[in-house]
Here is the input.
Amino acid sequence: MTSIEESLEIISRGTDEILILDELKKKLATGKPLRIKAGFDPTAPDLHLGHTVLINKLRQFQILGHQVLFLIGDFTGMIGDPSGKSATRPPLSRDEIVANAETYQQQIFKILDPDLTQIEFNSNWMNDMNAADMVRLASNYTVARMLERDDFNKRYATNQSIAIHEFLYPLVQGYDSVALRADVELGGTDQKFNLLVGRQLQEAHGQPPQVVLTVPILEGLDGVQKMSKSLGNYIGIDEPATEMFGKVMSISDDMMWRYFELLSFRSTEEIDSFKRDIEQGSNPRDIKFLLAHEIIARFHDEQAAKNAQADFVNRFSKNEIPEDIAEVDIHVGTEGLPLANILKQAELVGSTSDAHRMVKQGAVKIDGEKISDSRQTMLAGFEGVLQVGKRKFAKIRLNN
Amino acid sequence: MTSIEESLEIISRGTDEILILDELKKKLATGKPLRIKAGFDPTAPDLHLGHTVLINKLRQFQILGHQVLFLIGDFTGMIGDPSGKSATRPPLSRDEIVANAETYQQQIFKILDPDLTQIEFNSNWMNDMNAADMVRLASNYTVARMLERDDFNKRYATNQSIAIHEFLYPLVQGYDSVALRADVELGGTDQKFNLLVGRQLQEAHGQPPQVVLTVPILEGLDGVQKMSKSLGNYIGIDEPATEMFGKVMSISDDMMWRYFELLSFRSTEEIDSFKRDIEQGSNPRDIKFLLAHEIIARFHDEQAAKNAQADFVNRFSKNEIPEDIAEVDIHVGTEGLPLANILKQAELVGSTSDAHRMVKQGAVKIDGEKISDSRQTMLAGFEGVLQVGKRKFAKIRLNN
Here is the structure.
């Protein structure tokens, strides 16, 4: 048995907001499995790591014994974009929606437990609604409050048109919570407004309002913009292992911690210990390997992750080091020599002070690993590639 | 055959606006009977003269051979007021709506030709609409344009809440024009916005847009505020003839012309001749009698109008003239005497110059009719009541 406090710790990790925390405590205290809702767009079944931040959170709820309601919002998908403004959103057929749903399942069950997952379609109840029901639904919310939503507000203020049906979508999404009797709804921080509409509609229908839990939006490979397919800065969960591995390795050392927090299942303690390791001189690349490995193992398997890593190291060497580089034998005696002197003897720098400067700038690598100490002693027996900047290489052998 | 120009003259009389006049000309030029729509609230089948301004206009279209679509907006009536703000608007049952519709028919066929009138209910097509259809309908209009509507604009600006379903009603009303393929829609000036929504929706559905014709809002008995049941300043078309007659007689002499313009079927020429008559000394009361007579004859019959007038004169005398007033015999000779002298002899004034002044002030009446000429000669044989101010009366008999 997990205590309520333990549950809350797991649930809270990496979340942006929980509204209202006290209500969540009370719901957890009942000891009953909660109904955890999350809504997905029926038009885009290609999930990327950005989506999995939320799906991971669903998984955590499952680990705690709760039921996930994976809602596919096909009602609006079957209408298409009625504003006629976007030629790219023709209505989806029932067949297309079923096909998309299968793709979703294939993808989400890499993370979620099928036994604790209900796939739901909102056309199920929305198709039974008539025009009068829709009028009644619309009566539950005011124009002024709808215009408070960030994007509506901006568009209204800047005279960009908002079609009236756009005011109905948040209501439909909110009504889904009524139909599903959701206890908790998860969404990205940009969904907060819609999730709160759900609370209000549940109350209007005499239900206890759902707890709203928002998760941060994951930045893409660029470390700045939201991960999205259209921006090309994404890692798709169906991508080949080697591709995924390379993309994870391409993120900055800083962004790595963000990805650890939002994507890794490792404990916070373990991640903190990685940070300490790096402070004490470990190569960040090795820690990033652990992240890439975990992610690839999740969406492929352990072996695929190992192969991807080997492949990465291999390709990395191939790509970075020219084939015909000078081979240099250097005599270092029994005591060894400082790195700066070796760089000088290998004619990769003009002087040892040059060498100190280049190391300081992070321009010196041994076997592809950045070196931070120009005074480190290198001993006889070493064989490897020294690199200064992007273009100067030497294959050295140290003898005594 | 009425020419287009003649038709336009009849149609234009007493209207506020016709949008767009050229389109109306073209529609008339086809020579086909046009479909003339007007919408009515299902909750208030008690029509008053204010409503008949519009119904009269429908009648004129019928006289020109066109078809009237008398639309009862029962769709929203059957929903009730979903905002829950008004406890006074519970949903109407199908039975109540049918009963109301019968009352409407009873009333409107006092003016309209049943053979050229179709009674329609918008539940007929709105009940077939599902939620998705409603979303599509809502996509035809923008939030910004809806907020341009006068009342919405004021409420939004003053932070009075507008529920979102209120944005759907004008769209439903507009869609009725699509369902009915209306050529022309009539409404009060306060309905202009809604009628224009109809034009836009028809265009969105590939129909030629309806011509919008607005009629002025009739002032009530007070001559200032809109005639309405809740203000108590109305003349119901089902009221007893004597009641109606008295109410028409109570309007001011100025307001009488407004009522002639908007309620009478007399020609403009005839009404202009009445104005000239009064300028030349006719008693406005007599002209008002003609108005009251016409209106009572329309909603009751000719005999009822006559009786109501007789009753009015009778009650007027009873009310205004005390029962025990002095009876005075006055000798006027064969030539008669000026009114001023008679007033003096009857001791209603102190002097003939008093008499001239009182007449000038409009304070002198003979048999309840105001007199404007203090020098008019009164001949032997006259018997009647002279009145000065509110309290001085004498029943006089003139002898030679």
